[in-house]
Amino acid sequence: MKDIITAISTAWGESGIAIVRLSGGGSRDLVNSIFRGGEGLSLSPPRFMKHGFILDNEGDPVDEVLAVWFRRPGSYTGEEAAEIHCHGGTVAARKCLELCLAGGARMARPGEFTRRAFMNGRIDLAEAESVLGVIRSRSDQALRAAVKCLRGHFSARVKSVNDDMADLSAFAEAGLDHPDEDIPELTPDDYLHRLYEVAQRIRDLLSSARSGRFLREGIRVAISGRPNVGKSSLMNAFLEEARSIVTSMPGTTRDLIEEVVTHKGVPLRLIDTAGIRDPGDLAEEEGVRRAMEAIRDADIRVWVIDGSEPITDDDRRIAMSLRGSCCIVALNKSDLPVALEIDDVKDLLPGHEIRVTSAATGHGLEELKDLIVLSVSGSTSVDEDFNTTERQVEELRKALELAEGAMDAVSSGAGLDASLEMLSRSRKCLSRILGTSADEELLERIFSGFCIGK
Ligand code: GDP
């Protein structure tokens, strides 16, 4: 039975053109039945635009269009497909869509074109998800990282680790199942060594993949410090310097002072906590609670201190509360005479990085931003990274945990069997990334996030 899906794939509203897309065996004939132009679409070679008109049931032209068809498997979905490029605006495109529906197609569900591409083996699940990454990219870097996934670079690395794990399991299992046969022996040390390598590769992959969240949602930076050290001035200096200010980010909280700037393509969500003081009334109490929450949930805290004044009790109190968190120090007002040495600060917050800055002159701000990105993502630029989804990161995290568990099982004496079982579960996580063992619920969850027509 034919199952032709159709949808308007371009955004609604007034525009130059709109594209009605169809996919499924018989798409070409369906379009041909409502199309008039030259010898028709049926005799036109695939991938050639054909000029003509879409006709309604009375044979009256609805719109002047270009139509094209794609032969299986050389289409987006991997099956026969067609497109009608009509005029933009809601009526012309809707009319064309209605005629396709009347001709036997059904409305596509969200993401169904991409889902078909996946089901037909044209792309794997990670590549399918990266389509969404491309659509939603908000910076050049995010786009580049998403296109890298779309081109299969992320999948290739996941697959290569998965293959190595499969080899290792097969080798170890052969030794277990046929101890008498002439199979080269895999000593526990060899096995552990190879497992260690596999775990390391998952760890590397995880660190390149984590940037995906930062590229999409930005790094949350809480700027804290006692009053008058220059928190607001630093924030303003960042904003003035920033050539591109990202105006809207998902989840940007408007009731906190939050501004977004991009640094080398990574959005930095700067949260000024200057407003945190003893709450005067209930509304303010709620504001303080949210600000505290923002500091707690931030990816990193920048503690600003005034280098032109000696350390105060307030500074000491704040330093105590920041110990052990991901935090860097801005020793501000470097343009003024120094009353405070770096070593004094090091004692207050041991082990944390310090940068000398001046919000007034701009000194040290680039270094500070570099350090923010470095501290959170592990590198000052994310050029080598992948724009992955939370789901993919979560699967990688689980895969790593299980691979480490598989190592522990051997070294703690729980046995090779237990270790291999964990290795097999670790591989399942990687398979779920690629979609080689994806269940219906997972696919539904992923593709329902797409728009209709994609
Ligand atoms: P906040 O209360 O921590 O937000 O501090 P502000 O940003 O409001 O700054 C307090 C005062 O310090 C203001 O008068 C600023 O102009 C001044 N200030 C801030 N940063 C610098 C700096 O780097 N150098 C100098 N000379 N003054 C600064």
Name a few traits of the molecule.
Gyrase A, domain 2; Four Helix Bundle (Hemerythrin (Met), subunit A); Rossmann fold; 6-stranded mixed β-sheet; 47% helix; 16% strand; flat; binds guanosine-5'-diphosphate
Describe the structure.
There is one protein chain. The protein is an alpha/beta fold. The chain folds into three domains: 5-124, Probable tRNA modification gtpase trme, domain 1 (Gyrase A, domain 2, 2-Layer Sandwich), CATH 3.30.1360.120; 140-215 and 389-435, tRNA modification GTPase MnmE domain 2 (Four Helix Bundle (Hemerythrin (Met), subunit A), Up-down Bundle), CATH 1.20.120; 223-363, 3-Layer(aba) Sandwich (Rossmann fold), CATH 3.40.50.300. Helix content is 47%, strand content 16%. It contains 15 helices and 13 strands. The chain has helices at 27-33, 90-102, 112-119, 125-136, 140-150, 153-177, 188-217, 231-241, 282-297, 313-322, 342-348, 365-377, 390-411, 416-434, 440-447; strands spanning 5-8, 17-23, 35-36, 50-55, 61-70, 81-87, 106-107, 219-224, 257-263, 266-272, 300-306, 327-332, 354-356. Strands 3-4-5-6-2-1-7 form a seven-stranded mixed β-sheet. A six-stranded mixed β-sheet has the order 9-10-8-11-12-13, sandwiched between helices. A hairpin with a 5-residue loop joins strand 4 (50-55) and strand 5 (61-70). Helix 6 (153-177) packs antiparallel against helix 14 and helix 13 (390-411) runs antiparallel to helix 14. It is flat and about 85 Å long. The two termini are 23 Å apart. Bound molecules: guanosine-5'-diphosphate. The site of guanosine-5'-diphosphate (GDP) has 16 residues, from helix 8. Guanosine-5'-diphosphate is lined by residues 225, 227-233, 274, 332-333, 335-336, 358-360.
